């Protein structure tokens, strides 16, 4: 009994010492690092962070500690969080170089390991980004423009929707097939048939991985990945999905290698392969692993974010039939029913532009932003953030900043309309992020959202199985990503 009592006292004393050391370390840094809740040994700030409501947890902490604060995810990750338009802009724009590193996103980091376009840093990120921007410009805006690609794909989508004959359907994979085919034509040089089972399997894997990052388990993985990556669970399924996508793209690259004409690149993969052949620098970033994983970055990012935004948009329009009716009216007045919309039409369609912006703002598809990392010891406001510290620029807190949006929790296109019902820009509209690591696919995304939405609404009206007042537009999941609730709808010919 005495021995067991002494053991218990020893264990308790050890735990008290750990807590005191943690508090001392936190206080030692308090004059330098932004403030935040005191972390506990092993679990960090787990008790203050509800993994099912991560955004709301961070919002609660921001109300106590201000727009720049520190949280600890698990035993090893110290994160500086930026909350609201002023803090995010000040960091990502005014101090763009210092905040240009790529921070950890556990689900993807364990797979990409710093390779590829999105999850790399330093010289690798700069070289791959410059090459990707130039190459996508060549194949997106060159002899066969991206608008033509989108309009062609919209024709296939309309045909598929007409075949539903007004039945209730889940629009998820109708939208993801169309959106993904636009990027597929740029990176692979061709589109997929909508009935291609391998294509559908790839889309399911991308959606499942995105769902995992938005889930409570996905947020738990952000805190305890060093342990969870060795355990069974949905994190293993997410990894398998990414591996299957990598294998598919590696197979595509092999096919391209066997038919490559160095004088006539057909797509992104060809252009990268040619650059690999031309490269003389032994320290080049143009090698096979970067090719495969950069292509995976473009294929996945060019699919999930836009298709999820459209899916959320359709639900919001069924919830607000008055908004849908006004968009129909503007389409009929500016475009009519007898020609396809053009991207240039948007300049004459302020209400539709406002609706699309409000869908993006309300949908808030990447609420946490892709994590950044400071590239050197950085003086920010009254704080000193050590080199290598990860930063969460919470884009959702900008898109819902009450200083810029009168009713940020409500869906209201007037957030982007002036007193004359003309479209007005808003400095807090940042769904594509800011600074040196902003999403360079913004132009393509804007064009897809406008053309797909207007073409569909030109031809169909939406019907839900529920009355508008009964439709719940609250997100199903909010983590790294935001996912709308599952729903069915009818596309009724106009």
From TrEMBL:
Keywords: Endoplasmic reticulum, Heme, Iron, Membrane, Metal-binding, Microsome, Monooxygenase, Oxidoreductase, Transmembrane, Transmembrane helix. Its main location: endoplasmic reticulum. GO terms for cellular component: endoplasmic reticulum membrane. One of its GO terms (biological process) is epoxygenase P450 pathway. PROSITE patterns: CYTOCHROME_P450 (PS00086). It is found in: Endoplasmic reticulum membrane; Microsome membrane. It comes from the Eukaryota. Pfam families: p450 (PF00067). Heme binds at residue 439. The chain crosses the membrane at residues 6-24. InterPro entries: Cyt_P450, Cyt_P450_CS, Cyt_P450_E_grp-I, Cyt_P450_E_grp-I_CYP2A-like, Cyt_P450_sf, Cytochrome_P450_fam2. It catalyses: an organic molecule + reduced [NADPH--hemoprotein reductase] + O2 = an alcohol + oxidized [NADPH--hemoprotein reductase] + H2O + H(+). It is an enzyme of class 1 (oxidoreductase). It is a peripheral membrane protein. Its EC number is 1.14.14.1. Belongs to the cytochrome P450 family. Cytochromes P450 are a group of heme-thiolate monooxygenases. This is Cytochrome P450. It comes from Cricetulus griseus (Chinese hamster).
